[in-house]
Model the fold of this input.
Amino acid sequence: MNSNHKVRLTTNVLWKNFASQSTIHGLRRISETENTIGKVLWTLIFLTALAGLTYHCSFLIQKYLKFSKVTTTEEIHAKELDFPALTVCNLNILKKSFIQDQLEKNQNTTFKRTKGFCFESEESFLKKSDAKDLSDIWANLGVTLEHLKTYGHKVYDLIVQCTYNSKDCFNQSITKDLPLETENIAITNYPSTRLGFCHTIKLNQTTLGKVRRTGQTLGLTLTLNIERNEYWDLLSPEYGVRIMIHPREAYPTVDRGGIVLHPGTKSYISIRIREIERLPYPYGDCTENFKDSPLSELLKNNYEDYLKNHTYYTYEFCQSVCREIHLLQNCDCVEEQVNSTHRFCNPCDKKADLCKDKFKSAFDDNETNACTFLCKPACQDTRYDVTLSTSEWPNLEFQEFVLKRWPNLRSDFVESADNSSDQLNETYINKNFLRVHIFVQEMNYLRFMDLEAYSLPELFADLGGCLGLYLGVSLISIIEFHELLLHIVSLFCTKLNRSFTLETPKSSTVSLTRSFSRSADDLVSMSRSKAPYDINLRPEGPTPPIFWMRGKNGSHSIFKVQDMQNISDEDTYRRKMCFKCLSDIENLRSNYLYRRRPLKTVSKSGKLSTNSSS
Done:
C-alpha cells in the first residue's frame, strides 16, 4: 500500500487506535487479541475489574460524604500568655438604704413612686413571689438601669486594693474620684438585673506586660469590700462576691458561670487555659460571630443590630440575647439586657408583668425552644479552668497593718459603726473584707482541635490507589481518555458541518448544474500537469459544484470539487480515484445522474478508457 494512503476517520477507528495505545491495563489485550475466546475472556476480566473499581470508589465517596471528625488533644508550651479579664459582682444588687427609702415613699401618698418600684412593704413584696425559696424575688423587684447606676455598689466601694505582680494597678490609693481607666488598668461596668452592678477588670498588658512567669508570687491580687451593712437580708440571704474569669473580648455572662467567695477569707485561684477549635458545617455546627450566626437575622428584624458588634462570640451570651429578643417579640419589653434601648418590663404594669410570667413559664420549660437552633457553639472558644483554695484572712496583726496602710478605711469603719470603736476589730473585717489572688498555673495550655476524619486530599489519594490497583490508571491515562473524547467530538462536528453544507435547496440546483462546464477530458489534461491541480469549478452561488465518486465496494459518495484542489500527485490520483463524471452539459441541465453508465477512468498512459464492469 502506498505510504500516502489515508484511512477515513470514524468513531470505530478512533476507539481501536485508543485501545491499542492506551496505558489502561486490559484494553490493549482486548484490541489486539485475534482469538475470539481470548477477546471475550479479557473483556470479562476488564469488566470485573471495572465493577470492583466502581464499588470501591463509591465506598470511598460515601465515607467522605459522612463528614466525620475526630478530636485531638495537644499540650502547647507558650512563651507568653494573655492575662484574662476578671468580672466581679457584689451578691447584693441594690443598697439597703435605697430600698428602705423607696418603701417609705410608697407608703406616703404625697410622694411620686419610683418607676419599677411599686411595693409599699416587705409583705407586699413577698406576696409577689411564686417560688417557695424566694428564688424569683429579685426578678419581681423590677431593677432598672437607673437604679443600678445610682444605688448599686460602685467600683470604688467594692475594690479597696489592686496589685499585679506587686505593682499598684491604680498608682494611688483608691478613692471616689478614681477614673475607671488608668495607665495600668481599665474597668468597665456591666449592669445585670440579677447580679447588680458588675465590674470587669482588664489589665493593660502594654504597661504591665503579659504573663511570662507563673506561680503564686505573681498575678493579680484584689482586696474587696462587700459593704455588709448595705445588705437587705430579705433580698440578699448570702454574703460575698461572684467572680468570673473570661476572655478579654468576651461579654461577661456572670449569671451563667463564675465562683462565689465570702468575706473573711483569702482565696487562691489558679488558672489553666483551654482552647477549643471546632469545625464549621458540614463537619460540625458552630458559629464564628454574631454576624454569621442564625440569630443575626432575628437581631436585625428586632432592632438589636448593635449586639452584633460583639466580635467575640460565645454560646452563653447568644442564649442570653436570644431569650431577650423572644421576650421582646412576645411582650414588647426586655428584662435582663438592661443596656437595650427598648422598654423595660415594669413589674408595676400588670399586663406586661403577666405577659412576662407566661413567657418565662412557656419558654424556659420548652426543651426545643428556638434558641437551641439559633445559638450554636463557638468555632473558636477559650476556657479557663480554675482551681480554688481558701484560707482564713486576716489575722489580728495584719488587720492593724491594713488600718495603718489605708487610712481612709478607718473613717469608713467609724462612719458605718456609728462612731463606735468596738466595730474596729477583727470581726468587722472578717464580715466585710476578702482577698483574692489570681495567677496562671503554668505556661502550658491544652488545645482541643476538631479535625476532618477523612479529608478531600485523602479521598483523592485513595481514589488514585484504586484506579491504579484495578485498571492501572494514572493521570496520563485520564489525559489520553480526554483526548479520545476530544477527537470524537471533533469528528462529530465535522460530519455535522458536511451534512449541513451538502443540503442545498432545489432552487440552487439549476444554477449549480449550469455552472459545471468541465468534462472528464479536462480532468485528464489536468492530471498530466506537474503543478498542483487547480480545479476551479466554483459556481457563482453559495454552493460549490459536486461530483460522484465510486469506491471499491460500488458505493457512491458525493464530494465537493474543491476537496480535490490539494491533490498534487498524479499517480496517487490515478490509483485512488475513479470518477463517474457528468460529462454532458445537457445531462447536467436535466440533473440526471447516471450511476450505472460505463465509468471513464484515467489510464497510466493518460488516455481515457471505458470500464464496462461497472
User: Anything to note?
Assistant: The chain is about 40% helix and 20% strand. The chain has a mean pLDDT of 75. Residues 211 and 398 are 29 Å apart (CA to CA).
